[in-house]
Structures are given as structure tokens and as C-alpha cells.
Amino acid sequence: MNFFSNKSQLIRLILLIAISLFSYYQIAFEIDQTDFQSLFINYSLAFISFIALYIKFKRQYKLLLTLSIVFRLIFFVSTPQLSQDIYRFIWDGHLIINGFNPYEFTPDQLMQAAKLPFPLADELYPQMTELSASHHSNYPPISQFFYAVSAWISPNAIFGSILLLKAFLFSADLLVYKIALPILQHLQLAKHQIFLYLLNPLLIVEGIGNLHFEPVMAALLLTAIFFWLKQKKLMTGIFIGLAIATKLLPLFLLPFLAKGKRKFQLTSFLKTDFISMTTIALIVAVLCFLPFINVSTAAEYAATIGLWFNTFEFNASIYYLFRWIGFQITGWNMIAIFGKALTAISLIVLIFLALRSTASRKMQSESMVLALLIYFLLATTVHPWYLIMPLSISIFSNLKLPILVWTFTIFFSYHAYKIDGFQENTLWLMAEYIPVFIALFVSFKHHFTFLKPK
């Protein structure tokens, strides 16, 4: 039945769209990073509307695709309000087009040398966070490529670069739509599940809104999965390599390229297909890094990445429990020990899941999502946009619930940003993570069965 012929249905649709448009407009133009109360209200409204639109109109593909585009267009002409990372992105892009290696010097070092590397340096530098300005760039080369293109096309206007980067992210979301549909069809899953990704406020706000490049990585990763399902080894390896060179996280999914039986079978990792696809992926990733990396910059880049495991702390869950225990025992922060130990546990669990779940593509997609969930639940730093990757894969699995719940509650992490500094609150952390663990338990109980013995 045409929903336009149903008056109550039409009124409901108009109301939901109006709420979404209002909420997204507020987030795009009226709310800054420290206004948590307004952000909480408007993000909650946007999320409730998203769920209602999906439940009530999920069969209306053209309608939901149109809304996905319209909601993104609201953010298209806005400057990111919830993150200052964009200024470092554009800074790195200008360094590249002016002949500098973005991995070689920190912004502080360049500014203290009193030699402005490009005309916009004086505008970009004050808008970075102190943390960003004092550290080397950690953004991989494919991301750097887009930053450089935006700086090259718009060398004299920051907002011009912002518009170009938004266009890249908009295109990445459209690519996901085109790629995800045949994947869902191949796995015999409902096509409307793509809108659990495209309409999710987390993706819209943190992607085209705040210009984090996880959507580009997701597009490349899903393209690799598409070719993987088609058993195209070369193309699978190339696109996974490009995804790794955009954001490093897809490295963790390489073990899932192996295929074998539903039991521990280490030999499945030594299959020719796995070796060839992994080798291609790593070669592509290394080739992308080669123009930037030498002995010095490789060491600096590795040290910068290491900060996420032994220095940085933000919005963690299980790690904070270990940190508290460490304080009770030693009286000091044991992040250097716990950060590495929990990462090692994540890798062990990941390999276990990869070995255990190679019987079917559906099981593998569930295992990928579970591995990423465990990784982030054990991590020392979890920013909202980190969830875009597991969200993109979750639409092919039975682990949608914990991801969806977390894409809502992770915005509670913005409570920590204050006008006069940064301070996390245990109650808000509990409000974020308790629903996630409950949703994970429910998913295990009702859906996630491949770990159980036959």
C-alpha cells in the first residue's frame, strides 16, 4: 500500500522528518563541543527518529535513500562543530602540496621554527588542539591523499577544503549503498538493512558532519568484501590494502580472509587464497606509505601509533576497571602495561574467532563484528567515529543490536568536554557501557551461536 494514501502514516512521516531536520540543523550549526545538554537532546531526537523511520518505512527504499541524502546536505555547508581534527587534516594536506612530509614534523615544531610552511598556517594552527599540534601526524596515506587534493584545489580558503572533503565523504556513503546491496543479496539478507548504516546519526554526524574519514575506509572495506564474495583474490587484496592505508584498523580483519571448516584448523590460514590476498593487501598498503616513510619517519609514525596503547585515554570501559585496580595496588597509572596487555588479548581473541568461524560468510561477518567489539571494549581510547567500521559490517550479521545501542550511547562521551578543560564522569561512562553489555548478552543468547559446540 502506498503510504501517501494513509493519512496517519503520512503525518507520522512528516513529523519524523521534521524532528530529524531540526535536530541535524542544531547539531550542524548551533551546538559546539562543550554544549553537552543540547547535543544530548538533539542527538537523542535524531536517533529516535532514525529508529522510527527504519521500523515504519524500511520497505520504502527510495524514500530512505532520499532522506539519507537530504540529512547529509544539511551538514554540507557547515563547519565541524564537535571536532577540531579538520584543521589538522587540512594542515597535513597543505604540507604535502608544499613539499613537506606530514609525518616528519609536528605543527609545533614548524611554527616554532618561525618558517610558515604555507599561507594558511597562521589560520589553521591556532584552531588545532594542543594534543594535535604537539604530535606527529597519525593519518595514513590514503587519507593524506584526500587532504592534499582538498588543499590543492582550494589553497587559499579553509572552507573550500572543507566542502571538498565533505564531497569525498558523501561519495563514499553512496559507494557503500551501491556495494552493500549486492552483498546483502548474496548473503540472502534484507536489502533495507543498509539503512541501519546510511541513516544512522553516528555516521551522518561524525562522517560528513565532523569529517572523520572512517566512511571512506568503510567504503573501501566493503568493496573488498564484495570482491571476496566473488572470489576475486586480486581485487580483494587491493581494496583491503587501500582500506588499511586509509585507517589502519582493517589490518585486524586480515585473518578472516581464511576459509575452512567450523573447527580449529590452523592450516586454513595457510591456504593459497589467504596467503595471496593478504600478501597483495600488505604490498598495496606498503606502497601507499613508501612516498612518505623513511627510517626517521617510520620510527616517528610507529611511536605516534603507540600512543593509543600506552598514553592516550578516553571513553574506555574495561581498561578503566583495570586502571582502577592498578591504582589500588601500585598507586600509579599502569596504562603502559595494561594498554599493551589488553591489545594482546584482543589479538588472541581475534585469531580464535577467525579460526572458529570460517564455515560460512555469515559466520565470518558476525565474527568480524564481535572481534571489533571486543577490541574497542578493551581499548584505552574510543572516540565515537571509531564505531563506523563495525557499524558498516554489522548490517551483514546478527550482531546489530549492540552496535546500534552503542552508536547511540557513545555520544555520552561528549560529556567530558568542558569549556575550562576535559573531565570524564563515571556515571556517564556507566550509562554508555551498561546498555552495550546488556545488548551484547542478549545477542549472544538469541543469535550468536557459532561458538557453541555442535
Short descriptors:
single chain; 454 residues; 21 helices; disordered C terminus; mainly alpha
Tell me the strand percentage band. under 5%
Determine the mean pLDDT. 91
Portion of residues within helices: 55-70%
Distance between the termini: 44 Å
What is the H-and-E element order? HHHHHHHHHHHHHHHHHHHHEEH
Characterize the largest beta sheet: strand count, sense, and whether it forms a barrel.
2 strands, antiparallel
Q: In terms of structural class, how would the helical and strand content be classed?
A: mainly alpha
Strand order of the largest sheet: 1-2
The radius of gyration computed from the alpha-carbon positions, rounded to a whole number of angstroms, is 22 Å
Description:
The model is unreliable at 260-265 and 449-454 (pLDDT under 50). Helix content is 65%, strand content 1%. The protein starts with 6 loop residues before the first helix and ends in an 8-residue tail after the last helix. It has helices at residues 7-30, 36-57, 61-76, 85-97, 107-112, 121-124, 130-133, 141-153, 158-186, 195-198, 201-209, 214-229, 233-244, 272-289, 295-310, 318-330, 335-356, 361-378, 388-394, 400-409, 426-446, and strands at residues 417-418, 421-422. With 454 residues, the chain is mainly α. α9 packs parallel to α12, α12 packs parallel to α19 (388-394) and α18 (361-378) runs antiparallel to α19 (388-394).
